[in-house]
Amino acid sequence: MTKKLCVIGLGYIGLPTAVMFANHGVKVHGVDINEKAVALIRNKQLHIEENGLQDRLNTAVDSGHFTVSTAPEEADVFIIAVPSPINADKTANLDYVRMATESIVPLVKKGNLVILESTVPPRTVEDVMMPVLEKTGLEIGTDLYISHSPERVIPGKVFEELVNNDRIVGGINEESSRLTEELYRIFVKGNIHITDATTAEMVKIIENTYRDVNIAFANELAKISDQVGVNAWEAIKLANYHPRVNIHLPGPGVGGHCIAVDPWFLVELQPELAKIVHLARKTNDSMPEYTARQVKSFLDKKNIAHGRVAVFGLSFKANIDDMRESPAMEVLKHLEELGIDYTAYDPHIKENNFSRQTQNIEEAVKHADLIIVLTDHNEFKAMNPEAFADQLRGKHIFDTKNCIVRPVWEKAGFEVTVLGDSKNVTTV
């Protein structure tokens, strides 16, 4: 059994993974360059939101199996779980992967295993990590083993999926794969599928690109439905009763650290071939502006010259605090460009990120002409608008996630508009 594990990167994937191993008896040292995050974790406080993480962190720290700092330590296995964002020109930024790999070069010894969990373009292990690790002087594949095992979890259900999801393991050779499978078997109950490192990298990109293309199709259907008088949500639901159809749902855009980023890796690698992928990315990236223009059109129809909008939801997904690549932030940018005033509220975002964000729903809706829902948090689904209806200038709501309980809002006197549903707009 692994004696010691060093996890580089203590974010939405690295921290849950580290405490999972620690709570299964492995000595784990966690590393992050964010000094504030390290200080919080050391004191059993969270810098991210994830169901079940607090209790598991408490157990890991109290047991003595989990320590943290800003510098890596010697270990038997190193797991790299750092961000792999895109640059402004939509190319892969692998600086964090490269720096994390370089940070362990002085510590790596014969027999060690290095695993990359970050989602990266194909050939990153071979072209970026291996040249760096060759600086150790160890023979790659004989003295030092390397694998790619991409995370496959969804925020809000990370621990459940870490255990139960099938896992892909791609080693640079058979022994690298064997050692990696042996490590994850400490807690993984799902099947572990063995392949090579480059194929494993490609698998993760395929998974997220499939979802992005599917969502782009749904968003096109929503736009078309807005023009021809159809409820896209109803049509998609009915179409999905077909045994071989599984259309995703539309919305104000696509966010997160995976779906909104990973398809660009394929476009960068093969721009002349990734035509559908590129079009899907452009379609989904266009939705925040489309959403903002829908707001502008609504205000114009109501002859509201200097409108104010209450924005509900800033995170990219329901019931989490993750704002990475959130389409909500792009919607806000386009509202500003259109000269529309707004306040923003999200019950899961505890720290104010900009001056127009409020921690109070009453303040958010005060004097607003329109509420726009950008994230389908449970809090919004269960909301009783009668509690604050008298604070608004206009009783109008634009639901881009089709998540509110429509009869409740109609009973409170609201005009309800849903993205992709021009069939049943309610006028009170």
Secondary-structure map with pairings?
Layout lengths: L3 E5 L5 H9 L4 E5 L3 H8 L10 H10 L3 E4 L7 E4 L14 H10 L8 E4 L7 H10 L11 E4 L9 H7 L2 E5 L2 H11 L7 E5 H32 L3 H8 L23 H7 L5 H27 L6 E5 L14 H11 L3 E5 L11 E2 L2 H5 L4 E4 L4 H4 L14 E4 L6 H6 L3 E4 L2 E6 L2
Helix pairs in contact: 1-3, 4-5, 8-11, 10-11, 11-12
CATH-derived topology of the largest domain: Rossmann fold
The unreliable regions are: none
Arithmetic mean of pLDDT: 94
Distance between the termini: 66 Å
Taken together, the total number of domains comes to 2
Please state the oligomeric state of the protein chains shown.
single chain
* Proportion in β-strands: 15-25%
Helix count equals: 15
Helix content: 25-40%
* Helix/strand structural class: alpha/beta
Q: CATH superfamily membership of the largest domain, which one?
A: NAD(P)-binding Rossmann-like Domain
**What string gives the helices and strands in order?**
EHEHHEEHEHEHEHEHHHHEHEEHEHEHEE
How much is the radius of gyration in Å? Answer: 24 Å
Question: What is the tally of beta strands?
Answer: 15
Q: What CATH architecture of the largest domain do you see?
A: 3-Layer(aba) Sandwich
Largest sheet: 8 strands, mixed
